[in-house]
Design a protein that fits this description.
two-stranded antiparallel ribbon; 49% helix
C-alpha cells in the first residue's frame, strides 16, 4: 500500500515531469483543456464497416471498448493523433454496465466517450457531443435490438431474437432479452446478442457523427427527464421492480 507521501509524489507525475503535488492538478487539467483543439479532426466513416469492427472487438474488450475501438482505430489510420495514442483497452471496464454492475449499457458509455471526444466538451459551449449522446440513448431504449447482422456470426445463429428495452440500462436490456429468448447470461447466444448490440450502437453513432460532419445533425434533444420530472432518472422502474421482477434463466448443466 502506498504511503501518503508516496501517493503525493506519484500524483505529481504528469506527462513525464514532476509537479508540485496535488494542489496544482486542477490548474494542469484546466490548461490542458484549453490547449486541446476542439473539435477533434474527423473524417466520415462507413457505418457497416464500423459495426463489423465493433462486433468482432466485443469478443476481446466487450461493449464499451468495442464501440470506441471501432471508430478510433479507423481514425487513427486516416488521421493519426489524437486517436493513435488513445488508451482504448482501458475502457474494458465498461463491460456489463460498468464493471458488471448493470448500469448504463457499456455500448452507450463507449459511444458517449467517442462523441464527446470528437465533438468537444459542453463546458466550452460545444453541444453536439451531448446531443448525440442523449439522442443515442433514446434511440437505444426505443429500438428493437439488435438490428445489426454480422457477416460471420460467432454463435452460428442466423437470427438472434430482438427485444425493446425501453431503457438504456444494461440489466434491463439484457434481462428482457434473456426472458424473451430463454438463454442464460453465460450462453454463446447471449454473448452474440450483446456483440450485435454493440455493433448496432456503433453503426448508429457513425450515422450521427457523419451528419454532424455535414452540418446536418438533428439538434432536437429527444429525452429530458430532469426538466420533465425534476430529477435525473428514468421513470419505468416498476417494469422490473416490485412484484414484477423477472427470474433470469440458468445455464443447463
Amino acid at each position: 500500500m502506498l504511503s501518503r507521501r508516496s501517493f503525493l509524489i506519484l500524483s505529481g507525475v504528469i506527462g513525464g515531469g514532476l509537479l508540485g503535488g496535488l494542489g496544482r492538478l486542477d490548474e494542469v487539467f484546466a490548461k490542458g483543456l484549453k490547449k486541446q483543439k476542439w473539435p477533434w479532426p474527423y473524417e466520415k466513416l462507413n457505418p457497416e464497416k464500423t459495426a463489423e469492427i465493433a462486433y468482432n472487438e466485443w469478443y476481446r474488450i466487450f461493449c464499451g471498448g468495442a464501440v470506441i475501438r471501432s471508430i478510433f482505430s479507423q481514425l487513427a489510420e486516416k488521421i493519426g493523433e489524437p486517436y493513435a495514442s488513445f488508451p482504448v483497452d482501458a475502457f474494458i471496464i465498461q463491460e456489463g454496465g460498468l464493471a458488471g454492475w448493470g448500469t448504463v449499457c457499456g455500448s452507450l458509455n463507449g459511444a458517449a466517450v467517442v462523441a464527446n471526444c470528437i465533438c468537444g466538451p459542453r463546458i466550452l459551449g460545444l453541444e453536439a457531443g451531448h446531443i448525440i449522446t442523449t439522442n443515442l440513448m433514446d434511440w437505444y431504449a426505443n429500438t428493437t435490438l439488435p438490428v445489426y447482422k454480422p457477416k460471420n456470426p460467432k454463435a452460428n445463429k442466423e437470427r438472434i431474437i430482438q427485444t425493446t428495452s425501453n431503457s438504456p440500462l444494461c440489466h434491463i436490456s439484457v434481462g428482457k432479452w434473456m426472458k424473451a429468448s430463454g438463454y442464460a447470461l453465460a450462453s454463446p447466444e447471449r454473448r452474440d446478442r450483446c456483440a450485435r448490440v454493440a455493433a448496432s450502437v456503433a453503426y448508429q453513432l457513425v450515422l450521427m457523427l457523419n451528419a454532424w460532419k455535414d452540418g446536418k445533425l438533428d439538434e432536437e434533444v429527444k429525452w429530458t427527464p430532469a426538466s420533465d420530472f425534476g430529477i435525473n432518472a428514468q421513470q419505468n422502474c416498476l417494469e422490473c421492480h416490485g412484484s414484477n421482477v423477472p427470474e433470469a434463466p440458468k445455464l443447463k448443466k
